[in-house]
Amino acid sequence: MYRAWIVTLIALSSLLVATSSVSAHEEYVVDEEQDVGLVEFLTEALTDPFVVGPLLGGAVATLAVLGGYLAIRPLQQDIGVFRFAMREYSDYVPWLLRISLGIPLIGAGFSGYFISPALEVDLRLLQVGLGFLLLFGFATRLVALVGLATYLVGVAIWPTLLLQLEFIGGFAALALIGSGRPSADHVLQRIAGTRGTVYRKLDPVHDWADAFQSRIDPYERLFPTVVRLGLGTTFIFLGVTQKLLQPALALAVVDRYDLTAVIPVAPELWVMGAGLAETALGIALILGFFTRASAATAITMFTLTLFALPDDPVLAHVALFGMASALLITGGGPYAIDGTLERLATDAERADATPTEATTE
């Protein structure tokens, strides 16, 4: 029974990931759109049984598999060991996020665009400076706040930057959790906190930084929640605006890379499937529903996209990779459905236990 559920889950996941491999930033890989309007596309797609049927069938099958998994809960020991192993990397999450934000900024600065490859505005010094400070982990929270403010001002001037919406969640999460280690902040704080050092007398911000750290410590547990919200919102935005609301652009991607030869289905199914899959994945991340599985699915989608769409710039996905990887380590965190499901499972196990077993626990 367990094997059947596992095989079914793998098959559905493969189909989901395959149809989502068109999950690129479409504006980065095509210049011209196909001549089709939104109403025309939706009318044709939603009246075609070969489009609606697979979408409904896939949704029902996915819900059935998830429900079956929650009822049977196979591989619990394996999953428990995996979670424990991933938590061992928790100390490196800030470093991971710093790298995943710093490298795209440096790359954007030297490549002559501002955050998004679709925006050719040369702000080299600003981006390279912020990027290297993040990589070194120097004044990380301040740099993250400056980066967030820079992005928000940029969005107000150039709405195209919304294509890299994940930078809001990434900068906010980094401002919350700080630099971690290894970082320049950690080393300097250690030197400044040691009695008798010359640097302790010269450091003007050590006491202030300690006070700020003590105030923000209780909120650092919200880091996974902030990352979930940022990454999930990005998925929903890209799925809706780049595919469902711009079918002409998405169809051009399908046509350029001949994706219907990979999976011989209607181009409309490719677009609808990818858009709805990204939207559903974004909702799952925001709700914290199967967070690690959703993050792993996201990483797989990004990887397939880079191979399937070779013109899609790698740097445009690095921040997404980093945020998804962080969730793979931390899990859903506070205010996630995963926590509720785990508590319900624990209560059910205790209710099923014999009095002797319950007392032993």
UniProtKB/TrEMBL annotation:
Pfam families: DoxX. GO terms for cellular component: plasma membrane. Keywords: Cell membrane, Membrane, Transmembrane, Transmembrane helix. Its main location: membrane. InterPro entries: DoxX, DoxX-like_oxidoreductase. The keyword Transmembrane applies. It is a multi-pass membrane protein. It is found in: Cell membrane. The chain crosses the membrane at residues 50-72, 92-116, 128-154, 161-180, 280-308, 314-337. This is DoxX family protein. It comes from Natronolimnobius baerhuensis.
